[in-house]
Amino acid sequence: MCAYNRSDKEQEYFAKQEAEKLKAAADKHARETAEAEKKRLQELHYMKCPKCGMDMQEIEFRRVKIDKCFSCGGVYFDDGELEQIIAEEGEDSFFGRITSIFK
Ligand SMILES: [Zn+2]
């Protein structure tokens, strides 16, 4: 005779189903928490200098708006902005040569 009767197997099935439901809810909560934390950090750090944390100002250079920190002097290029400047100045320019290192 089998050690488990039908009702034990049913209980195991439902317990497993319940555990899967709880795991899915926990995973969803973790994803939502991670998204909320990412959004919170984006709002906290938006236009803050990555080096000193002070506010950055947008200045226009060669029709490209770059972010400048007047506290520590740092300059930040958003994705694609350096490439825009290189497109105007050429691959052999200072910026073009720097960028070629990372290709
Ligand atoms: Zn700074």
Can you give a write-up of this model?
- The chain has 103 residues and is mainly α.
- The protein folds into 2 domains: 1-46; 57-101, no CATH class.
- Helix content is 55%, strand content 12%.
- The protein is built from 3 helices and 3 strands; from the N terminus they run αβββαα.
- The longest helix has 40 residues, at 6-45.
- The protein binds zinc ion.
- Zinc ion is lined by residues 49, 51-52, 54, 69, 71-72, 74.
Q: Which SSEs are present, and which pair or pack?
A:
Layout: H1 6-45, E1 57-61, E2 64-68, E3 75-76, H2 81-89, H3 94-101
Antiparallel strand pairs: 1-2, 2-3
Bound molecules: zinc ion (ZN).
Broad shape: elongated
Helix-strand pattern: HEEEHH
Q: Give the C-alpha Rg.
A: 27 Å
- Contiguous uncertain segments of 5+ residues: none
Task: Enumerate the strands of the largest sheet in spatial order, edge to edge or round the barrel.
Answer: 1-2-3
Number of strands: 3
What descriptors fit this protein?
single chain, 103 residues, mainly alpha, 3-stranded antiparallel β-sheet, 3 helices, binds zinc ion
